[in-house]
Amino acid sequence: MKDQGRRQDDAQVDGEDHLAGAKGAAAENNAGNDGRAAGRGLPAIEELLEQAERLQRKAAGLRRGSGEPLHIGLNTDPGFLQVGAINRRLRHLNAEFNVIFISSETSHAPRLLRQGQLDLAFVYGRPSDPDLCCEPLAEVHFCIVIPPPLLQTRQEPDWEEVASLPWIWAEHSSLPYTAVLHEFTRRRLKPNRAVRAVDEFIVRQLVIEGQGVAVMREDEALPLADDGTVSIWSKGWLRLPLSLIWLARNEKNQLLRLAREAICELWSARPSTAESRPGGFG
């Protein structure tokens, strides 16, 4: 964003120089020519003035944030994060908002913010780093899902049996999987990590094909449970906060403040299920 700021300053200086030069040319033309010569030169001078003024207005727009790229990190499914509604809202607020959505794991988001590759980021949890600001958006429910063919009986499995089943394990320090691993560790159990996957879309596909147990968001799991593709294990519910984070040094940036307020407003209008599901493992 520093480079963008330098480009804005350069654009404004160019616009002011161009406008000053055009006005100087107009003054010299009127002073050094008779009425007919000045009349013949007026259209060209007026066009030059209009071009300079357009450049100056563009520079002023850039200084206000118009057209400046806004990089937003997505830690999960874009549909769940409402990227379509976010983009429409930001475009409505400012037609020249240049929003760029980038996939970013929760564990990587702080580093990407510090490197200037992101301006805002969705994450699970509430980071407490002193150089970050955090705005909680919602409580997200997750559950452990089991393809029915993997269950030996119709009885509810216990933690030991679930640990022994083949697991589709998400890599890259996935916070929901980290929470499940902590619970297994607390019970002195190790999950059978049969397949490792790099993102939730691969996990979902492998679960649909019945190849292993996994952790899913409630909104993903319920349709699969309704059609019999998976069973939701009653003891495997957990809840994590979804948050929006940014660098503390950018707290007063007007562009980011406008984007943050729009995102928070959209999420505040989303129906909450915080009280409808268990908040921890059974």
TrEMBL record:
Residues 21-39 have a biased composition (Low complexity). Residues 1-39 are annotated as: Disordered. One of its GO terms (molecular function) is DNA-binding transcription factor activity. Pfam families: LysR_substrate. Residues 65-261 form the LysR substrate-binding domain. CDD domains: PBP2_LTTR_substrate (cd05466). InterPro entries: LysR_subst-bd. Keywords: DNA-binding, Transcription, Transcription regulation. GO terms for cellular component: protein-DNA complex. Residues 1-20 have a biased composition (Basic and acidic residues). Belongs to the LysR transcriptional regulatory family. This is DNA-binding transcriptional LysR family regulator.
